[in-house]
Automatic annotation (TrEMBL), chains A, B:
<comment type="similarity">
    <text>Belongs to the GST superfamily. Phi family.</text>
</comment>
<dbReference type="InterPro" id="IPR040079">
    <property type="entry name" value="Glutathione_S-Trfase"/>
</dbReference>
<dbReference type="InterPro" id="IPR036282">
    <property type="entry name" value="Glutathione-S-Trfase_C_sf"/>
</dbReference>
<keyword id="KW-0216">Detoxification</keyword>
<dbReference type="Pfam" id="PF02798">
    <property type="entry name" value="GST_N"/>
</dbReference>
<dbReference type="InterPro" id="IPR004045">
    <property type="entry name" value="Glutathione_S-Trfase_N"/>
</dbReference>
<dbReference type="GO" id="GO:0005829">
    <property type="term" value="C:cytosol"/>
</dbReference>
<dbReference type="InterPro" id="IPR010987">
    <property type="entry name" value="Glutathione-S-Trfase_C-like"/>
</dbReference>
<keyword id="KW-0963">Cytoplasm</keyword>
<dbReference type="InterPro" id="IPR036249">
    <property type="entry name" value="Thioredoxin-like_sf"/>
</dbReference>
<dbReference type="InterPro" id="IPR034347">
    <property type="entry name" value="GST_Phi_C"/>
</dbReference>
<dbReference type="Pfam" id="PF00043">
    <property type="entry name" value="GST_C"/>
</dbReference>
<dbReference type="GO" id="GO:0004364">
    <property type="term" value="F:glutathione transferase activity"/>
</dbReference>
<dbReference type="GO" id="GO:0009407">
    <property type="term" value="P:toxin catabolic process"/>
</dbReference>
<feature type="domain" description="GST C-terminal">
    <location>
        <begin position="88"/>
        <end position="215"/>
    </location>
</feature>
<feature type="domain" description="GST N-terminal">
    <location>
        <begin position="1"/>
        <end position="81"/>
    </location>
</feature>
<protein>
    <recommendedName>
        <fullName>glutathione transferase</fullName>
        <ecNumber>2.5.1.18</ecNumber>
    </recommendedName>
</protein>
Length: 215, 215
């Protein structure tokens, strides 16, 4: 069964695409035009009542929320492709710890940077320089903690690549590219080595090749 | 080994306590006084570099982020106490879907209500009526989607109680209690039945009995 992934051009769905490529799971991308309001279409809302992406559809089985979808496919195809959950329950615990750190510490400031630097004019709201400044400061503090962590282990959850690293790819790609704050990564030795490692994985390069344009 | 849980009086650690009680895992609560800055103590920051709670310490094994900790103990003691993850990979996928909905759709507005209604004077920042109004509107829309969902299945992830339900307990308890917006639950038939069910579980009643005071 080919897995349908809705909204491939957006950041969160790109997490899912990278995960599916790592797991060697075949997928079909289904584009959605947010500016035309396709995410509020009644048929789409039957799949995802909150009107956001990604959604995956695998026969009758529908899932949403990028981090939930990644966990499901990483578990379903545990022995296929790259193991993304760790080998033991304790390793998986660390993966979950750092997936949650990404969601609750890393994502809020980098999401605000994305919104105000990349999308304010497109979406028609004022770019707020205070939000940008505060978000950069908060993100810097988070990255200082990552720097310390990555001085002790090669990846966030330990010495193995996992969902904890993969989940950082889409928004960090914006940070070093269109947001124009690559220095936040390159100025931190271990964070920089980690970023070079994970962003050069064939899975992520493939995602960028297929769906580069940030929307 | 007794599991140490730091910060039992706060909302997010209460998720972990309810989970440990459901899983019949023995724990020891370690109070932290945020007003005295104990969460920024260098010794505490060695356990949790972001300076937040909960943290669990199980011998040498340290975890943080409430939803990660719940997943770890629910998995580690899969066959002990209440099964909180579903019986199949597909059921677990739905659990993850709704845990993530709680984290990204339900929690932001209810957290803002908590902050502005319950804690603004204590923490010394102005209560913002606009934030309160907008948060209530957003939360109402989320609860409308829950109402629809819970008209089709008894619990959020299906016809079984799981982490997806349990994760809602602490902040919904604030909503119907000190926030004073019980009508948001009682006015929605299926949400109300669900809330009566999950909030009357012995695990949650035990948590309230031990650590009732909202801090």
């Amino acid at each position: 069964m080919v897995v349908k992934v809705y909204g491939p051009a957006f950041a969160c769905p790109k997490r899912v695409l990278a995960c599916l490529i790592e797991k060697e799971v075949e997928f079909e991308a289904v584009p959605l035009d947010f500016l035309k309001g396709e995410h509020k279409d009644p048929e789409f809302l039957k799949l995802q009542p909150f009107g956001t992406v990604p959604v995956t559809q695998d026969g009758d089985y529908v899932l949403y929320e990028s981090r939930a979808i990644m966990r499901y496919y990483a578990e379903k195809y545990k022995s296929q492709g790259t193991d993304l959950l760790g080998k033991t329950i304790e390793e998986r615990g660390q993966v979950e710890n750092w997936v949650e750190v990404e969601a609750h510490n890393f994502n809020p400031p980098i999401f605000n940077l994305t919104l105000h630097v990349m999308f304010s004019s497109k979406l028609g709201f004022p770019r707020d320089e205070n939000v940008i400044k505060e978000s950069e400061e908060k993100l810097g503090k988070v990255l200082d903690i990552y720097e310390e962590r990555l001085s002790k282990s090669k990846y966030l959850a330990g010495d193995f690549f996992s969902l904890a690293d993969l989940t950082h790819l889409p928004f960090t790609q914006y940070l070093v590219g269109p947001i124009g704050k690559e220095h936040m990564i390159t100025s931190r030795k271990h964070v920089n080595a980690w970023w070079n490692d994970i962003s050069n994985r064939p899975s992520w390069q493939k995602v960028l090749q297929l769906y580069d344009a940030p929307l």
